[in-house]
Amino acid sequence: MKAEAMKEIPWDKVFSFTAWDGVKLLLTALVILLVTRIQLFNDRLSALLIALPLTSLVAMAWMRAEGQDSGRIANHAESTFWFVLPTLPMFLVLPWMLRSGMGFWPALALNCLLTAALFWGMVAILRLFGLDLMPK
Fold it and tell me: In whole angstroms, what separates CA 5 from the centre of its chain?
């Protein structure tokens, strides 16, 4: 994102919180907490719940509750699809690194770099096809 695009974001509105934001925060955190608690007893069920894109589903529900129109939510869902693709290799590379004896933090850091590189590669490739996820 270029500096001009960052200036267009109304940061004062981004960081102004209401009681409704507090409710959303607590409910969203509760979902994440429950999934991590389930993981203590059942890895696969926890993975299934996370694979359901809970964050995206919760975010879209909050968007709708705040009155956002269907077109905006559709744009969000479509962009999320493209943004998820470069993250998928991490779910194979990270376990391989950990099982090969690499420490958690170095493996996580390398996977973050890998994901960032794949993300920017995808942005460049999609631009060739007329889809710009990161407008200039």
Answer: 20
